[in-house]
Design a protein that fits this description.
By secondary structure, the protein is of the alpha+beta class. The protein is 45% helix and 18% strand. It holds the Pfam family GHMP_kinases_C.
């Protein structure tokens, strides 16, 4: 049996807001994927991956995990000695869940009680998210567990609040003029420092107030409109969200993107938002007319992820 593939993820809505209990909406993204494999560790990529897995196994060994979600660490360690590595084309530091896919792959292969993602209940999702959060904290210092959960489930997930998540069906992608797309900022971003900036900002009352009263309101309204396929309210709230981020998330917007972010707001041809924690990696774009937006964004690498 070949090892299953674990796809990247895209957080469409909810970056930073989910830390403060906003809703989030996230989708698997099959363009990037990873899987556990064995090899003779002849090249640097495989060697590096194998030695990271060794460190990770030591970390997992000391994690208190409930009986239901136990991992067979000794088999994992034996496999690492046999040349196990994570073969992945998911770019790191791009906000598309490289560590999430790795955590999901390890959980799938080494969990003692095998789960069927299709039959997992809402309560089990909640417990699993906690376990994944502890497992992924090795990579980010603190993790909500959302990324590995999406990679593991391979389904769109609605984050209702800090505690609860649920499986959700999103409108089928159609071949319309509109699109949601990714723009490559040309640089990697590190989650840790960006999250640190966010927490610094949260110390000021004015920022906390505008986050709760404006950002979270626009964010949740976008999710609601997107799931209902109501494009006018979606774009109205997207513009507000994009303006808000341009004003309050300046440090998270890569310099290469600054001008085109503003250009989108000035022309209403497209709106940009962060994809993940920002600082680099991908930026998300939304437009009602992709052809027009594409011309305006010439020179940037773009990938369409959803049509409408």
């Amino acid at each position: 049996m070949t090892n299953p593939l674990f796809y990247a993820k895209i957080l469409l809505f909810g970056e930073y807001g989910i830390i403060e209990d906003s809703q989030g909406l996230t989708l698997p993204y099959s363009f990037y994927k990873g899987t556990l494999k064995f090899s003779n560790l002849e090249n640097d990529f495989e060697k590096k991956s194998n030695s990271s897995l060794q460190k990770y196994a030591d970390y997992l060994k000391n994690l208190p995990v409930s009986e239901k979600f136990q991992l067979d660490i000794s088999t994992f360690q034996k496999d690492i000695e046999k040349g196990l590595f994570f073969d992945s084309n998911i770019p790191q530091g791009y906000g598309v869940g490289s560590s999430g896919a790795l955590v999901a792959a390890i959980f799938e292969k080494y969990s003692v009680n095998k789960l069927q993602p299709e039959t997992i209940s809402k309560d089990e999702l909640k417990d699993l998210k906690k376990v994944f959060g502890e497992m992924e904290s090795f990579f980010h210092g603190k993790s909500s567990g959302i990324d590995p959960l999406i990679c593991y489930m391979n389904l769109p997930i609605l984050i209702e609040n800090k505690e609860n998540v649920d499986k959700v069906s999103i409108p089928q992608s159609a071949e319309g003029k509109g699109a949601i797309f990714l723009i490559d900022s040309g640089m990697t971003g590190e989650t840790g420092p960006m999250v640190q900036i966010f927490f610094e900002k949260m110390k000021t009352e004015g920022f906390r107030k505008t986050l709760k009263e404006e950002f979270i309101r626009y964010n949740n309204a976008c999710i609601d409109a997107f799931l209902k396929k109501e494009m006018n309210p979606l774009f109205r709230n997207l513009k507000n969200l994009s303006i808000w981020a341009y004003e309050h998330f300046k440090p998270m917007i890569p310099e290469s993107i600054n001008n085109i972010w503003k250009k989108g707001l000035d022309t209403n041809a497209y709106y940009l938002k962060l994809c993940g924690s920002g600082g680099g990696g991908y930026i998300l774009g939304f437009t009602k007319d992709y052809q027009k937006a594409e011309k305006m964004l010439e020179g940037f690498n773009k990938e369409v992820i959803y049509r409408f």
